[in-house]
């Protein structure tokens, strides 16, 4: 699976005028990559993810998966937002199973997938709980399991840990990397948190602001097996500082204009 954005631009109408949110974005995401996109406010991070999800259509350019243009939402892409957006009347198990109801699978395969992803996300013991009975971290685990149970080609993450406390956020970072390693799913994540992007990503794309465009595309040469101790290593601290400097420089450039 290769996800490709070619010369993608996006304009919005704002107070009777056109505002360009993204301008000529070119990004290729290879199979099994974990690509993190960072940038200051106004860099179009969430717009980019919305376009890849098929929730909106670019003003110009094309987005493809294995050469097939994206024309709307589809089961080849799983999406997780900042809040879990679980159905409050469904149990955890039934929330996770929701997407499978739209697929042509027999009952045994549905049960197998639900059981596996509940176990993978550490939710097997609360499978019959309602969302209101869960912690914030558990709700995000359920949202991730629901997105993955259909086994999409790409998992799209829109600031998924931004509303969590620091401890829970770090636990979720470790979890999503473990899931990525276990499933081999390609991940495209947008985040404002540079430390998170460097810790999670195999690549980090920095977007400039007003309009959003690719300012830097960096490989992250850290070991695949990362722990929280990785964040204290000299190599990590140097990479984080470099990306922070890039984001800050692009933000200042945007403000100056």
UniProtKB/TrEMBL annotation:
Keywords: ATP-binding, Nucleotide-binding, Transport. Pfam families: ABC_tran. GO terms for molecular function: ATP binding. This is ABC transporter ATP-binding protein. It comes from the Bacteria. It comes from Lentzea flava. Residues 3-234 form the ABC transporter domain. InterPro entries: AAA+_ATPase, ABC_transporter-like_ATP-bd, ABC_transporter-like_CS, ABC_transporter_ATP-bind, P-loop_NTPase. PROSITE patterns: ABC_TRANSPORTER_1 (PS00211), ABC_TRANSPORTER_2 (PS50893).
